[in-house]
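Priority: low. Protein: Leucine-rich repeat. Input follows.
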Amino acid sequence: MAKRNSRVDQKKDNIQSRLLGTNVNEINIEKFRDPEEKKSKYNLHGKLNEKLLKTISNKFTTDVIFNLNLMNQELTNIQALELCTHLVNLNLKGNNISDLQPISNCVDIVYLDIMDNNIISLEPLKKCEKLVSLHAEGNKITSTKSLQGLDNCKNLRTLYLKTLSGEYQNPICEAFNYRDTIFQVVPALQRLDGIPKKVQLDNGEGLIKEQKPLDLQLSNQPWFSSNMDKFNEKNQNSKINGEEQLKSDLKDCKSKISQLEAKLRAVMVDLK
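Result:
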């Protein structure tokens, strides 16, 4: 019975494989999962040191740590990351970090996520010339001065300072001409907050410049009075035209009656 079930399952797999064009037994579903959906296998409770870095990365030395996911670990101090000089992908989302200086020497970093922290300046990233994508939504960046250093990131193409929903953003996002200003500060940037550089958002400035004063002169009469005047005038004209037509019709009738009377008199004379 077990062998029969095994053959049935194998037959189903073969059918699915032909439909999908691949061997379903070789599909690794983990490749298609969102990395943020994977639950961390560890909880650092705000602590980070060289030993922990080796443990969570399963590496014997910090020099060969290329990827680190330290999301939601209650971190405030990331001094130990200065040992990971060859980091390429680093996720620090959802911590309490205020200073990025420890990763200033991570010159090989390409993807960096520092969303939902307490960071006030991105200046320490000025040496990260290989940086391509930076998520910095939900921090405390207040001005372009806080962005100094990003102009040196010649490969930076994507920058997030706020989410599209507005739930996570920085104070600088409320500034006038925010998008134009950021693109000027970071010339290499091609996409800001998920929106391409070439897309011009209408912030209403053009409407303000082109607005014209409205003539709101109000009459003492109700809104329907002018229409009522037109209505009365039309009725008056109709009344006058009707009376003239009636007089004309009566005149015609009298004329025809007179003609009939004349004919009757002529007939009476002949009969006599």
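DSSP finds five helices and seven strands in the chain. Confidence is low (pLDDT under 50) at residues 19-38, 204-212.
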